[in-house]
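Subject: Sanity check before I submit

Could someone independently write out the structure tokens for this chain? I want to compare against mine line by line before I put it in a report. The sequence has 300 residues.
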Amino acid sequence: MLKIAYHPIYKHPLPERHRFPMEKYELLPEQLIHEGTCEESNFFEPGFIDSAHVLEVHEANYFERLINLELDKKEIRKSGFPLSQQLVDREQIIADGTVKASEFAIENGIAMNIAGGTHHAYSNRAEAFCLLNDQAIGARYLQNKGFAKQILIVDLDVHQGNGTAEIFQNDPSVYTFSMHGKGNYPFKKEKSDLDIALEDGTSDKVYLDKLKNVLPELIEKVNPDFIFYLSGVDILDTDKLGRLSCSIEACKERDRFVLQTCRDLTIPVQCSMGGGYSKDIKLIIEAHANTYRLAQEIYF
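---
Independent answer below. Compare away.
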């Protein structure tokens, strides 16, 4: 059975200028159930992440100041969000959702988190709406539990996974691959194990050809026993924050290729949703829903 992490706190209300597209976290599960792709039994509710798992990835001083709401003004400004207890709770619950989903993925081949993909969170700071790096925490958790040795993180959000790159910069046991918009935030990129920076306006064919040429060879080279997939839909040409020109059909084909590759090679995969900022919320929901539809089609 496809297992999906979801908690009501995912839709935590923010001040008006920060609110969009937080509503997608509520609407996406409703859509999946309404159309029959999922049932209530597919969803599980995560709790608070064990701080010991967080501290395997994030510096103690940063994490302690974060949970005690003691970040300074500069750090809060860098995070992009007004700091609050509910926001910090939300981030810890998202991280737990990814950790638990990674265990479900080992059992079932795949598992999802409605939220997550907080790849801008560094080991020692928050950045760009990311406070704790959920997939980095999940990767180290699997290794420490002996569930995986070699991990590949496939980050196809339009923004580079700069925090993830920094966290694992000296760790060959977690290979970081980011394919992102060259002209997109962050404007000062970190160095992933493999970065593919795409020009503004990159179209469907160029995007898909690049991915299909690179990913199979990369998997053969890295030989991972677990993959974390960040399936951001901000590669769409309608995205307000992205600078690529991919259609929703190409975004779906991207997901199909990644998931089918993982399935064919019997490599468990955990998916976190990442970004999506098109003006039309229906388009965001449709693009994200495609990932779940494909998971059900390919695996179950």
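---
OP: Matches mine. For the report I'm noting this point. Residues 85-108 form the longest helix (24 residues).
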